Amino acid sequence: MSRPDIAEFRRWLLGQIPLLGHMGLGEFDFDGRQLEIPARLAPNVNDKGTGFGGSQATLATICGWSLITLLLHERGLDCDLVIADSQLEYRAPVDGDFSARCELPDTETVAAFLKKVRERGRAALALGIDIRQGDRVAMRMQGRYVAIIRSP
C-alpha cells in the first residue's frame, strides 16, 4: 500500500474544515507513523497574548484525526472517523509558534484496531497528542477516536 501524498491531504483537509484555514497551519510532516502539524501563534492568540486553549485543543484533535484518517486510507478502509472523548492537560503557556504532534501506538495495537474495523465495521483507537513549542510540551491530549466503515 502506498503512503498518501501529505500535501494533497492537507489541501483536502483545509477544504473540508473551514476553521483550519484561519489557524495559520504550516506544511504537515508525516513519516507514516508520526504526524506533526505546525501553527502560527498570531491567528491563535488569546487576550493574554498566548496561545488560545481552544486553538490548541482544535489542533490536537485534528492532528489525531488526521493521523488515523491517513492510516485508514493507506489500508484501503473507507471510514467515518469521529473523536469520542478527550482529556486535555495544559502544562505551560504557548508564547510563540507551536505544533501538534502524535504517533501511532505500537504495531500490535494498530493491527488489532484495523482487524476490528474490518471484522466488526467499527473500532476505537486511543492516541496521545502533544502541543509543543520547540521541545517543550505545552499541552497534552488523550483522545479516543472511533472509525466506522461507511455503508456503500
TrEMBL record:
UniProt xrefs under Gene3D superfamilies: Hotdog Thioesterase
Highest taxon of source: Bacteria
SUPFAM superfamilies xrefs: Thioesterase/thiol ester dehydrase-isomerase (SSF54637)
Pfam families assigned to the protein according to its UniProt record, in alphabetical order: YiiD_C
Residues annotated as domain Thioesterase putative: 9-148
InterPro entries: HotDog_dom_sf (IPR029069), YiiD_C (IPR012660)
Name under which the protein is recorded: YiiD C-terminal domain-containing protein
Organism the protein comes from: Marinobacterium aestuariivivens
